[in-house]
Structures
1.
Amino acid sequence: MVEIYGQEVPQTLEGWYLLHDVYAVNWSRWRAEEPATREEIANQTARWLTSAAGYEKGDSAAYSVLTQKGDLMFLHYRESPDELNYLELSLRQTRLYEFLIPSFSFLSVIEINMYELATLARMKLADQDIIPGSVEYDSAFETEMAKQKSRVQSRLFGDIPEQRYICFYPMNKRRGVKLNWYTLSVAERHDIMRSQGRIIRKYQEQVAEVVSGAIGLDAWEYAVSLYSDDVLTIKRMLYELHFDPAIAVYTNFGPTYVGIRYQPGQLTDLLVGKLK
Amino acid sequence: MVEIYGQEVPQTLEGWYLLHDVYAVNWSRWRAEEPATREEIANQTARWLTSAAGYEKGDSAAYSVLTQKGDLMFLHYRESPDELNYLELSLRQTRLYEFLIPSFSFLSVIEINMYELATLARMKLADQDIIPGSVEYDSAFETEMAKQKSRVQSRLFGDIPEQRYICFYPMNKRRGVKLNWYTLSVAERHDIMRSQGRIIRKYQEQVAEVVSGAIGLDAWEYAVSLYSDDVLTIKRMLYELHFDPAIAVYTNFGPTYVGIRYQPGQLTDLLVGKLK
Amino acid sequence: MVEIYGQEVPQTLEGWYLLHDVYAVNWSRWRAEEPATREEIANQTARWLTSAAGYEKGDSAAYSVLTQKGDLMFLHYRESPDELNYLELSLRQTRLYEFLIPSFSFLSVIEINMYELATLARMKLADQDIIPGSVEYDSAFETEMAKQKSRVQSRLFGDIPEQRYICFYPMNKRRGVKLNWYTLSVAERHDIMRSQGRIIRKYQEQVAEVVSGAIGLDAWEYAVSLYSDDVLTIKRMLYELHFDPAIAVYTNFGPTYVGIRYQPGQLTDLLVGKLK
Amino acid sequence: MVEIYGQEVPQTLEGWYLLHDVYAVNWSRWRAEEPATREEIANQTARWLTSAAGYEKGDSAAYSVLTQKGDLMFLHYRESPDELNYLELSLRQTRLYEFLIPSFSFLSVIEINMYELATLARMKLADQDIIPGSVEYDSAFETEMAKQKSRVQSRLFGDIPEQRYICFYPMNKRRGVKLNWYTLSVAERHDIMRSQGRIIRKYQEQVAEVVSGAIGLDAWEYAVSLYSDDVLTIKRMLYELHFDPAIAVYTNFGPTYVGIRYQPGQLTDLLVGKLK
Amino acid sequence: MVEIYGQEVPQTLEGWYLLHDVYAVNWSRWRAEEPATREEIANQTARWLTSAAGYEKGDSAAYSVLTQKGDLMFLHYRESPDELNYLELSLRQTRLYEFLIPSFSFLSVIEINMYELATLARMKLADQDIIPGSVEYDSAFETEMAKQKSRVQSRLFGDIPEQRYICFYPMNKRRGVKLNWYTLSVAERHDIMRSQGRIIRKYQEQVAEVVSGAIGLDAWEYAVSLYSDDVLTIKRMLYELHFDPAIAVYTNFGPTYVGIRYQPGQLTDLLVGKLK
């Protein structure tokens, strides 16, 4: 719990745990198998993915990754690290795993910053002429926060957006000598995030953004997944964001992965070479 | 859309998507095959490349890469990430792929900065004595921009330049504390790019330059491909550019790949050892 | 020995030597073995781990590691580098080792900073109206320090905390031009550590922290292991710490490993695929 | 062409293209061959090297590399990238290549800075009382420059120095915020290089230095090869250079490779284990 | 030769060349051999090491390396790079080499800074009332320097210290914009080194330090080997040194390797699994 303008609130709300799991295919080994065997193995993988995607508490999807950075990306949303660990272990028991080469993975948890919600709540109270600091105000704030939290449940615990393309990258906030995100005041950080928010909202019809936190979980502090039916729109949105101070000054990017979504059935086609 | 001197224009025009795809050959495994088999496989690859190069919407080419950074580079121009993904997957189905070791790849999209076009358009209007800000001006500007856009279509959607050598490198704009490309004003960026443009134009008869953007697509922000029949000219042009502020101060370079173009038929010669 | 406020004390107290030892499993090779053979090998490993965990002077445990950074992490507490070396060599003699791929390891030694103890001792003396600098004071200080040292024996020489999750990362103190931990005065460092200590104490019921030093032992200066039954609590604690000056300004993090504890018997289940 | 004190001159003179090509030997695979086969393969390699070294336009040599960074370094001087590419491909067709593991390579081209020559030319004219800026001066300068260029032909197009040891490293000029080689004036760069030149000349009897440029060719801007019959002299010269501003302030070093020259015949001895 | 307070002296005295040579063991391949074969191979290696250690001009030793950074470290002291190259090549001819995986190596040469000796010489002359600058002084200085040089011969050309543990790390002196070791004056460097020397001398009974230079030889400028019968003492000494300006401000550390010394006979035990 931290203090924000007089109220103590938890810093972030967390939703599903996320595992981005990228593999290259050992194609020569794979192609050395008989076509019937390959079809059988591909079907087994498709069943594994269908079952994972159908799991009640969470979601799963597969992408064909562009460039040599990988061939397949599995993406899982689950309610605990244990569930994700179970998915990792069950994939390793499939026959396909013999032909997969681990390439990249990232563990994170969907998060929504409480500042964002608290600001929205406070804006609503400002319309209602309640005196800040009064008992009435505190009670109204609590009620409003509960509404806000309820409103964001679908962002915290939703399914994987269904758009055709994913663009995924981990990132850190800068911790330099003169420019250090973590030594800015709450107000300064809030201002910087607001400017970034305007650009993201401009594109929100075309690009779904999922931000997840990874402090204490993996090698970068955050991960961003962008989902869209148009890769150029993702590129243009990120291009604009590069000139926004939150990105231009305070963000260091990790590697970027671009994938095309495959339904479980298409996964079989992909692996057995029935292209297009 | 961003504002430039009063007009709202899209920031960049995009053309073909590009895939630079570098592989090493597993020569000992390759040479363990019978000569007839190798010839057959090389011919299959040549047919694959011929077909890819003949595709209506885009182009494809192959290069012999110098140094241990790779042996073969395939280069594809296509209208969508899906087409490039299809090429990746179809290469993986060739028999040659069994002998290839992924070494480097880069996904980007040809882009032309709208500032460049808007400046040219405005220069032309300046010659015509139309008052900036007038309705007449806006209409004339729009007409002129349409002409400019039409003029650059061949740069956005052209074939791969046919010169013998390619020099390819990805790059980032600097995002340092004191020197940050992304916090400069539009005018400052414009000035810096103009100086760089002068050097590039000086060499344009001997060196064809293709700039592509990769924000949201790959691990660097931009990629540059230089095509020439004389490697020394590329070196001298880049040497001069190193002393230009846009490069000296605001550019961080990725790895450089130099290749010699091979026609599909020569590819067979190369792989079966009929050298020179 | 260094001087602290007039007393010469050793800089740190050291406890067990620690080896964090992460491996990936070569699953395709492992699954090529007959089920009976796998069970036999897994049981042999479980016996090796049970025996290591039961060793009188120290402790041993195993974790299932999340993400592709590894599959299994063995963690050993021992009284000498020789004992850890013996464990390394004895693991290499097990049949399981044929299926393990070394992924990450870290050698360190549990340490408690003497400043911390000296401060506590001095605070107690302050309550007793003894004049600092007097012979009486020095003698009382020595007595109090002996008590403090005795009190921390269980932290220096305890068992591995039994919580379900481990979060492990190595780290360095910053040695920059303007911000250099190692050129701060003792008092400055003390102040910075105190602020960090407040956050750690806030979470101490839910998160057990073990700090170990690695100067002269491995590639980072320190290692931190956090043990908890709730991963989100670890994430929230580290999130808060990121805004504390000791972390925000003076700490560079290495890679983070998250694991789920497995008892020796469960290890067999894990390796032979009896999931959940 | 750039302007220097009123004269337009090309920036650099280029000579042979250089390929430094380092390989590790897969010794266990190599030793699994019959002695007679190994002798045969080693002899084939020796013939390949003899032929490459005897090529009229350029030179070739082999070195035994110290440390695990490699076992063998081939060094080629040739007149075009195509000739170097041919050598790469022909080595890949030798039977030895089956036992080689690519470890490091570097493509560059010998270069001599024109400032150096122009300065020498101008110094000579200063002795002749011709008025700078006069038509006479310009003509005399041109004559003197032609002499200088002719004089350095053997440095640009010479054979590989025959000394027993080679020390090779790539390097970049610093492009920092405050210290940026590429934003210095010509005069400043000239001054800095002159100081460095004094040290190099002091050692020139014992150490032959070949500087080559790699902008647009490989991952570093320059490469330096030092040849000497005494490794300690190379070390002492570089130690002294480390305190010279051109090195201390403006140079970032890449990895260093030290090799011992082997004649083609000795190469066979080396590979078949007839040591010393 | 450089000038120091009026005398020209060589900058450093050099002794044995050093090769630190770290390997991992391919244990699964090793354990696939028959016990008798393993014993035979281990004995061959032990004989190779015994012979190398018994070589008149130099010394050789083996260590069991902690952590996954390696299993075995061979350390050789020899009078020339050629002798070290011979040792590398002869190890590659042993049957054990088939089971070794190169992990790390470092080439350097033991060095003693002449400033250190000149200072000691001058201190002695100061006791003798000879007027600095006089002919008498110069002659006495020369005599005293000869004594000093003779005194350090055993440090330059000694055997490998016999202590149980080795701690090895390469390092660079900082070459930053504001803090650059190589642009400090001789006097400033001297002062900084003196402070560091005090700490090293404090531990000299328990820790033997061998400093070697690697400029022009390998990827770092220096290497430090610390030998002790107590690893904690090494850690404490390095901890103290981290707060000394020469280290805190002017030193960048490479990877640290900790090893336990094995006699040639123990090497056999180690490899055939007769543990403890």
2.
Amino acid sequence: MLGLAINLPAQSPALMPMPSDMKLNGGRYRLDDGFRIAVKADPKDDILYPALTRTYQSLNRRTGLYFHQQRITTADNRSDASFQVTVSKKVEPSVGANESYTLTITESGVSLNAMNTLGALHGLETLQQLLQSDSAGYYFPTVNIQDTPRFPWRGMMVDVARHFLPMDVMLRNIDAMAAVKMNVLHIHLSDDEGFRVESKTYPLLHQKGSNGEYFTQDQIREMIAYARARGIIIYPEFDLPGHCRSWFAGYPELASAPGPYVPGPRFLIDPDDKKPLTIASILASPSPTIDPTKESTYKFLDGLFKEMAALFPAPYFHIGADENNGVAWKNNAAIVAWMEQKKLANTSALQAYFVSRCYAIVKKYGKTMIGWEELNSPDLPKDVIVHKWLADGDGGFLKAHGTPAEIAAKGNKVLMSSSFYLDHFMPAYIHYNNPYLPKEINPNYLGGEAAQWTEVADRYNAELRIWPRAAAIAERLWSPVTVKDVDDMYSRLWRTSRYLDERGLQHLNQYETALRNLSRGANTALVRPVVEVLTPLRGVKKLIAKMTKSSVYSLPSSPNQQVSDILPVESEARYRFRKDVEVYLTTKDPAAEARMRQQLVSWRSASAAYGSAIAGNARLAEVASHATDLGQLSTIGLDALDRLKAGSPYRADDLKTEQALLDKARKNTAGEVELSVIPEIESLLKQKLIPEPKTISMF
Amino acid sequence: MLGLAINLPAQSPALMPMPSDMKLNGGRYRLDDGFRIAVKADPKDDILYPALTRTYQSLNRRTGLYFHQQRITTADNRSDASFQVTVSKKVEPSVGANESYTLTITESGVSLNAMNTLGALHGLETLQQLLQSDSAGYYFPTVNIQDTPRFPWRGMMVDVARHFLPMDVMLRNIDAMAAVKMNVLHIHLSDDEGFRVESKTYPLLHQKGSNGEYFTQDQIREMIAYARARGIIIYPEFDLPGHCRSWFAGYPELASAPGPYVPGPRFLIDPDDKKPLTIASILASPSPTIDPTKESTYKFLDGLFKEMAALFPAPYFHIGADENNGVAWKNNAAIVAWMEQKKLANTSALQAYFVSRCYAIVKKYGKTMIGWEELNSPDLPKDVIVHKWLADGDGGFLKAHGTPAEIAAKGNKVLMSSSFYLDHFMPAYIHYNNPYLPKEINPNYLGGEAAQWTEVADRYNAELRIWPRAAAIAERLWSPVTVKDVDDMYSRLWRTSRYLDERGLQHLNQYETALRNLSRGANTALVRPVVEVLTPLRGVKKLIAKMTKSSVYSLPSSPNQQVSDILPVESEARYRFRKDVEVYLTTKDPAAEARMRQQLVSWRSASAAYGSAIAGNARLAEVASHATDLGQLSTIGLDALDRLKAGSPYRADDLKTEQALLDKARKNTAGEVELSVIPEIESLLKQKLIPEPKTISMF
């Protein structure tokens, strides 16, 4: 590994998201032990003062200096303090507040000014991202920043139902969200696989509806307080009426088909079922669904919504409403008779009826209702927020329910998660270039939410799955529409990843831990060069492969410990190699050539050593064929470099052989992973950089 | 790094602690997707069933298999299940219960039998440690184990006052304690630097007595429940009367000198103080101390003890009582007058009076009082547990207050933490060979506690500081006195470290994260070979160096981010090298020689590259002189190997030069670290293994 490090040149600070206005002035403000904060703010601002203390302690730790302040309080008002903070007004976190701030750093000090608490929190995060070091120590670049977000709603949805995510994962995720200026956490608290919050009103929900893993109400309150302190609101989703298998374990009377039920994947019939499913059979299957015709159903929901509306103070309440195919309803004669009696033409009308009943309850408890886009209908009340998730034209099976423009024109507010699904294993630029996100300004365009579903993710890889890619989505939602340079985004994204590591996020450690575990005590240095250029198959290929093989793979206890589960979705090693290919093909830069050669030789030898490195290790053997491909492709790459340098063209025969090896590698999906550097080797072969694809198939 | 891996031969399972009786039978029980648990137990055992579920899920994750059970319940009783569990009786965690179990693994299945819940928990931990893998997959070795502990009290004390440790660190530590069969967690909740638990009775204790970091009562309850589920009790320590600066911030009337006070190191006078202290001045200083002469003091303590005795259900309550030099009392005329009036001859008598008053309150609330050994006195009630921590004869400044035998003979129970202080940076064998731990059986010898103080530790390195060394202490307290082979212990300790990593402990990740952060984005592979053979200075050298320089270094917010803070206390690379030196000097084994040569060459080149690797990095430069030493010593080592092979003796001149380089390296304490491989290089030079020292100086 020695010598392989590419020390990127000193760069502008890796801010993410980019501020709306920034001017770097070329100087440096140096930190030393005497670094001090002074504040002018509402002395009762119980969000601001702890945030200042945290920021101060974080800078203290990262610099290894010995600052003198212990805890920033109203007594901290020295006019000679290096960092002057002025905040006009104390506010609570909310969507739509003024979030602007001004941050000025000169060679003699730092000043942060904000209209209110929320702007100040953002400014503190920007300041922390500005910390850099050189041989003389730590400094902030001198800069003038005026910053304000593009969208008021910069959210993240986390599914804790399929695989539960415990408190420490949730809290670290909140820290990371705050670091990239996200302000809304949407927790998908219930699904077929689990009901994940304690209900005192209906205790069988969490007791029988989970495998024992759920948030207590105390924990929810702790999480909300933790998020509040970081400028983030938390709202719950209870996914109705079609993702409720777990509810029926304790309350089978809610279901439109008799039980008994146990929590588990939607299409699970028998826990020992290994019969293969098909996509068609899944879509047409009578999955467990709430009975919307009984008044007792609404009485139950009233009791639950009342309890949960009080537990979650945020003004939003998500009822799901997605993916109900109506088959369970059609299979129930009483429901069909009821529909006829009520003159409901079809199950869509019945779903609209159900939604309208939920709406009344949500409203009664003072909340704004949100639902996935399937709840959209002409009669939908205007104060319901429509949460887009479908993406027409990418080969999806389900059709979108109106475009953002159509929904907004109708008078409903729109939240966008289409093409923001992190669990689709897409590279960050796909989310960054999200074609569904409207470019024009419209008060009904609230913003969006990155979404992490957990059929094939759990506490051991959730941070690795969400980060750093969510930072690219955060930037898309915060920064001006003009901030769109993908190369620039990536150069900051990799540094943001290391910054989040420094701040305590466990995404890098999750990879390292899993690699150590998979290596079973062997030296990870032997397998790392191969593994680090593998990436999980894009789209839902892995999910569908697992689902159609057996429902046992997506049980809420099923492990996610294959090589494909532990890999980052994007390979930084591949990114760096690609940059060198690009530079070399453009400029013939000898340093880039040297690095490429070193990398190719390293891959070739790692490929040759892989077999003995994994001897006796069945799980790492799963991707051994990719190691073989990597060796062959490295040889092709080295040969291509020789020919490029010598100006000696390929004979058609050679090209054919080499192209065949590339094609073979491209078809190799062993272990549900792919070798990421195939386009770069092919670029060397073709002496022209192959651009990244604009879209990537989900299937 | 390629090729440097030493693949240790397949070994017996790395059990830690070793069972009291074990017979390996040479076969293998293979796990597959069909692995199932069946239980016969009290259906109301709400500790056992969740523990079975956790064990099952942990095995599921570690094997990457797809087990079919979701959650182990009373319905799981199939007689054909692979793993049969029988537990006679449900019990709550406690000290002194029967903790025995029998674990039998044959080629056809696993059976665990225990008298009660606690034995079953231990058996489940043993089973998890037995998991091994080969090219065919995962297996348990066939074995008969009958196991029971040597001491009933196998504890750990964690100081959360000096630097606060948040919930996730505490919970992971509880998991690791359970993994090595520790059963008591003692939380040092208050000290001069902080009061770390919410008090509803006296809220200024945590509000003014901390930097905002403390456990809420909800969190304490959650922690206790988490520990209970793992067979561990938690009891609190409130360190009185001499470690109470933090209390006085909110309640200065408790102090024997007027305030105002702010939480901070005991000998802090001014937060900006940089005047150097000396050990003598520290020992003679009037540190803040409770006024024991006022009745209002005891009224306050009654209120607090009442609240905390209810919060912590365990039957023990620790009042500290250590390190009170009485100077603050002597400086207060009113206290001196009161002593004269009460005919108390000296401050020791006044301390005994204070202890007796505390005893009455603790007893009133139904608890057994524990105190550090300074509370020992002839009149101490027999139901007080004396907690030994001083170690006579190691150069300590304070004299021990009776030997275990003397205390036990007097009728008091004894807990041992002498020579179990993990924060003394001692290698594991020093704790393992603890000379203070009585070898004979006596019902008054309860056992002991590993202790981690946090003047120079915090959430970012606490796991690295405690583990894996605490596992050696756990073995000392659990396994028979005959289990004492240090080599065997180490061979299991390193594997236990990786096992704890696999179970979720963050000790390895803490090192890796800190190394990445210190490397500031540079390739850690460039600095790792040097850093991984450095170890922190042994004893209290670092603490004293910091304390006597300025109190600012041990503020509760001061960072622990020097190289010396992030290093494991013992170097595994050094251990492996030492093993090779030992083998080679004994047997001239060519494989050992080859590995040593490869290691020495690698060190030499890493040494040569260190300067450029850390260019621009002031913090890694702190240990650059050790890199230079490592290079010179590697050359000496290679030369010694050549001479050993050729049988060519050193000339006296050469030896003198090489010895001088070794001596220079030995004196190098730059960055408060030492190069760990000096004895091994010297062993090669002298052609004879230099044994590990029996004792290591604290100063």
